[in-house]
Amino acid sequence: MVSYGIAKARAMANRTDWNERTEITKAVITWFDADYEYELEIENEDRMDNEEFTAWVEENAEILVKADAESLHTVCEEIDGIDFTEKEIDDDALFDEEYENACEFEWESMTGR
Questions:
Q1: Which residues contact 23 (CB under 8 A, 6 or more apart)?
Q2: Cut 0.85: pTM above it
Q3: What is the pLDDT of residues 37-86, one digit of tens each?
Q4: Alpha-carbon dihedral sign for residues 26, 27, 30, 36
Q5: What does the H/E/C string look like for the chain?
Q6: Checking DSSP bridges between strand 22-32 and strand 37-43, what pairing results, if any?
Q7: What are phi and psi of 33, to 5 degrees?
Q8: For residues 75 and 33, is the Cβ–Cβ distance under 8 A?
């Protein structure tokens, strides 16, 4: 197993945007019926990348809003917009988790667990 410091240095060398990336965590579709404004929140549960999630939401917005309107016993008259919520990706935390998992796997392999 490579030491923590060497492994992290290699990981950081392979990524020029270390701790500078963001990920879209959810989309909020704002829509109206005849009387009210509604917000439909769509979580990025499958952790799609930003472009994939954005495209999926934009492509399926009408279907998602129709289903939401139906569940509220109303009819969508207009989609006002889609806002996306982003958060920063903590590459240090991701690396620590992956390194810990690799160490655990190696230890279990060596001990036969």
A1: 44, 47, 49, 50, 86, 87, 89
A2: no
A3: 999 999 999 989 999 999 999 999 999 999 999 999 999 999 999 999 99
A4: negative
A5: CCCHHHHHHHHHHCCCCCCCCEEEEEEEEEEECCCCEEEEEEECCCCCCHHHHHHHHHHHHHHHHHHHHHHCCCCCCEEEEEEEEEEECCHHHHHHHHHHHHHHHHHHHHHCC
A6: antiparallel
A7: -110, -160
A8: yes
Residue type, 45: E
Structure token pair of residue 96: 């620590």
